[in-house]
Design a protein that fits this description.
It is built from 8 helices and 2 strands. A two-stranded antiparallel sheet has the order 1-2.
Length: 224
């Protein structure tokens, strides 16, 4: 079914984006950490905050919000197989969470890290990224294949509708966060005959602004 293919391709694109974020974070942190023999509390907190942000972001994926609930509502005979697979995925999530706890505990226990602790922090980051990357791979290889078997007919159309509504909300949220830069009038040009290039009087400055902004109503210039 084309609708099922569209949904699974859309999920694969989302998975690829998350995978790139994890790999980029892992590479960046490894380069930064291995250049230093000691770490500050701020660096530990920064690492912990980013790990937690990446972890929490997993719960807002379309896989978690729409696909898995639809699979739970599918045919009863899939419950045992689905629950076993979800248990494995949750186990990988738990492993990632343990890595976050390691970083946060170190941030709360010391103000400075030795070289050995730096290596341990790198290992915790590697373990975190590895666990979530394994989860992504397992979802694509096993969860998506199971979804094709257990979700049928109108259920795919319902998921597609949820995807479209989700994407529309994301676009609207991005527009709402967009900042509109305030309009700033240009610096008035000194009036002819002003000694030493001094700034002209208010009336001359307004005339210069009007010249610089042709077509702008004088009333708006006065308000500006």
């Amino acid at each position: 079914m084309l609708t099922a293919t569209y949904i699974l391709v859309s999920l694969s694109v989302e998975q690829a984006s998350i995978r790139m974020s994890l790999l980029a974070f892992q590479k960046y942190m490894q380069v930064q950490l291995r250049q230093q023999s000691r770490l500050s509390l701020a660096q530990l907190q920064y690492t912990g905050d980013w790990l937690n942000r990446l972890y929490q972001g997993g719960y807002w994926r379309k896989v978690e919000m729409y696909l898995i609930p639809a699979m739970r509502q599918a045919t009863p005979h899939a419950d045992g197989l689905l629950n076993g697979l979800l248990d494995e995925l949750n186990g990988l999530n738990h492993a990632a969470l343990e890595s976050i706890n390691v970083v946060q505990q170190r941030a709360g226990a010391t103000l400075d890290c030795s070289e050995q602790q730096t290596e341990q922090l790198c290992a915790a980051i590697d373990a975190f990224c590895t666990a979530l990357l394994q989860r992504l791979e397992k979802e694509e290889r096993e969860l998506f294949a199971l979804a094709r078997k257990v979700i049928v007919g109108e259920a795919w159309f319902a998921i597609a509708y949820q995807f479209l509504a989700h994407d529309a909300q994301v676009r609207e949220a991005r527009r709402g966060r967009a900042q509109v830069l305030p309009f700033i009038l240009p610096v008035p040009v000194p009036a002819s005959g002003t000694p030493g290039g001094a700034i002209a009087t208010t009336g001359s400055a307004r005339t210069s602004a009007e010249d610089a902004l042709p077509g702008m109503p004088p009333s708006l210039l006065a308000q500006a």
